[in-house]
Amino acid sequence: MMQIAIAGLGRMGLNMARRLLRGGHSVVAYNRSPWKTDQLVSEGAIGAYDMSELVSRLSSPRILWMMLPAGSAIDMYIHQLNESFSEGDIVIDGANTYYKDDIRRAELLSQKGIRFVDAGVSGGIWGLEKGYCLMLGGDQQSCQFLEPVFETLAPEKGYLYCGPSGAGHFVKMIHNGIEYGMMQAYSEGFQLMEASEYKRSLNYADIAGLWNRGSVIRSWLLELAEKAFAEDPRLLRIKGYVDDSGEGRWTVQYAVESGVPAPVIAMSLFNRFSSRETDSFANRVLAALRREFGGHVARAAGGIVKG
Predict the structure, then answer these.
(1) Catalytic residue, candidates 107, 147, 179, 188
(2) Any catalytic annotation for residue 231?
(3) What confidence category does residue 275 fall into, taking pLDDT thresholds of 50, 70 and 90?
């Protein structure tokens, strides 16, 4: 068992910390909002209420897993850790980070001998129960050292070393681009049924459940669609406004840079843009799926925001 700090106790970070605690690891918890730290302390974690306290509570080699919003917040933490961490310590970024930022941050930390691992994490709000799929990049020896942590967080065969710095988040970026396309195909299929003469006799929860029993399009997304339709058969309580969190844009950008055609992923991204002007049934399906797997905020019909 290992000692590890988790910085950022949001939808993903809090449950990852809980899964590590249940696996017997020693977890130092830090969050900008102290009440979340208090909550995890009540479940067995060690609390830290600022970064200096977090660093002081860790034994060498220090291990810190960041579950923070991608972008400037991570740069701020990286610069703090570059000042306070020592040679041999390990920083893990589990955010939905642009892979080229990993390369830059790894180079900065390496100047002091601090090791950096980029971890693409998939599993959403269901990860506590089912485990998290982990796509790992960076120093391979560090990833081998961290295997007890990965084995606790992931289901069996649920983590993979993908290559040098940036590789983990690159693979996660492509994963999310594929996810965009899959969700778009499902949403269009349900839209076609909603437009058909058979609309009144079709039960979409039953259809989603049926397709998950032996059909070639079965998936976890269909399980979540079944759940969403069971709760709201025509998704009348949700607005078809679909955000994008960055990875789809980066995937399309990479397709342009590399000259590789990715029309399905590109179209699914552009459809999310159009969803902010229309309220189609297909877009309500997309919004419902994002809410079910990731806990993303969905806009309720009538303009009220709900989780």
Answers:
(1) 179
(2) no
(3) confident
